[in-house]
Design a protein that fits this description.
Elements lengths: L54 H24 L12 H6 L8 H9 L3 H7 L1 H23 L9 H18 L10
């Protein structure tokens, strides 16, 4: 048994190393931890929650995102990617002759904007699926922003691996002879 008292023996505070801040709630006697140090307990006395954001402020981010995507689609719809010289060539296609998952994406967007869905699917079917996913996500974001509910899109690692596998399979199949229907 140690007969010499330790630094933490006189108080209930856990010992800390020199230069380390004390753990939350273990400051000098008579002090309370800050509101951000007590998760799940709500605001401390004297701390008020921030006022709710106004509707225009809540809608700014989703509307700005939608406006940017619409502007990009309008540009691709106006400047035909089927005519050479308007857009850069895919570096993977140029140097290896292989189609990447994005090859044909601009032609697909142009056909989609001009209303030619079969041509859009023929240029890059995966991109057309992406347009639909984006439409669903932006509608959810707008509705949640209008209601004042935060948009949290938590995707588990299994979904990311699945998306990666679909992209890899799509790339593989579109570069094989039997998958030429998926090539742009």
């Amino acid at each position: 048994m140690d007969t010499h008292p330790t630094a933490g023996a006189a108080t209930d505070d856990p010992p800390t190393r020199p230069g380390e801040p004390a753990p939350p709630g273990h400051g000098p006697p008579g002090t309370l931890p800050a509101a951000h140090d007590t998760p799940g307990r709500g605001p401390q006395p004297g701390h008020l929650p921030p006022p709710p954001r106004s509707l225009p402020r809540r809608l700014f981010a989703p509307v700005a995102t939608l406006a940017g995507v619409c502007a990009a689609f309008a540009y691709v719809g106006a400047v035909d990617p089927n005519e050479p010289g308007h857009y850069p060539v895919c570096p993977l296609l140029r140097f290896t002759g292989l189609y990447c998952p994005g090859c044909g994406g601009l032609r697909s967007a142009h056909a989609f904007v001009t209303g030619d869905l079969p041509a859009a699917l023929g240029a890059n079917a995966l991109a057309v699926v992406g347009y639909g996913v984006f439409a669903v996500v932006i509608v959810l974001w707008l509705v949640r922003a209008a209601r004042g509910t935060p948009m949290r899109l938590a995707v588990s690692p299994a979904w990311w691996w699945g998306i990666g596998a679909v992209l890899a399979l799509f790339t593989l199949v579109r570069n094989l002879p039997f998958g030429s229907a998926l090539a742009p």
